Amino acid sequence: MPVPYNAGGPAASVVLIDPTTLLPYAAGASATGPGTAATATRVTYASDGSSVPVTSAAPTSVSATITSGTALSSAAVVNGKVSSITFPAAWTAAAVTFQGSTDGGATYRDLFDIVSGTATETTVSSASVTTLTTPTGGIQRNLRVSLVDWISYTHIKIRSGTAAAPVNQGADRIFIIGLAG
């Protein structure tokens, strides 16, 4: 399904981006290839008839903290808009996995991907996350993620380690979760 992306223009100006090719779709948003900008207050997808409102809200962020001596973060309200995750500069070596809630934060479940027909826990190794140097010389790790992968989750939690082998952190670790506008 195409994803609406506001390119910074007026509230009703939107470019529909195909998440698999990252190319813009034409107005009407079908899966038949790239096109040009659409103008609407709601975008209706021809493939299934669903629609989403078009907004010009600026991106925002929320935080999730893994407290010292624990492996699972506090809940972050994301409302299906996760676009990036900035990792803390300090990190006790461990993979990173996730839990998601689709019911407003009442129930959390471990997140899995389907790889070659097999369900595997959604995992990011600390070593595979891009290391960035900030303008002030600090180091941050930032993970860019696909909106499509997170669209059904109202809340998420971040885990140090896996569900089977969580790794407690040696200090408070604060993640910044970027949310699309």
Structure description:
This protein is mostly beta strands and 181 residues long. It folds into two domains: 3-53, no CATH class; 60-179, Jelly Rolls. 2% of the residues lie in helices and 42% in strands. The chain contains one helix and 18 strands. The chain has a five-stranded antiparallel β-sheet with strand order 7-18-9-16-15, with no helix packed on it. Strands 8, 10, 11, 14 and 17 form a five-stranded antiparallel β-sheet that branches. A hairpin with a 5-residue loop joins strand 15 (130-133) and strand 16 (139-144).
List the helices and strands in order. Answer: EEEEEEEEEEEEEEEEHEE
Shape: globular
What would you say the CATH architecture of the largest domain is? Sandwich
* CATH domain topology of the largest domain: Jelly Rolls
- How many beta-strand runs? 18
| Residue runs with pLDDT of under 50 for 5 or more positions | 1-40
Task: Return the average pLDDT rounded to an integer.
Answer: 73
Backbone structural class: mainly beta
> What is the class of the largest domain in the CATH system?
Mainly Beta
- Count of DSSP H/I helices: 1
Radius of gyration: 18 Å
Summary?
The protein has one helix at 147-150, and strands at residues 3-5, 13-18, 23-25, 38-39, 42-44, 51-53, 60-66, 76-77, 82-87, 96-101, 109-110, 112-115, 118-121, 123-124, 130-133, 139-144, 155-160, 173-179.
Features of the shown structure:
mainly beta, 42% strand, 181 residues, 2% helix, Jelly Rolls, globular, 2 domains
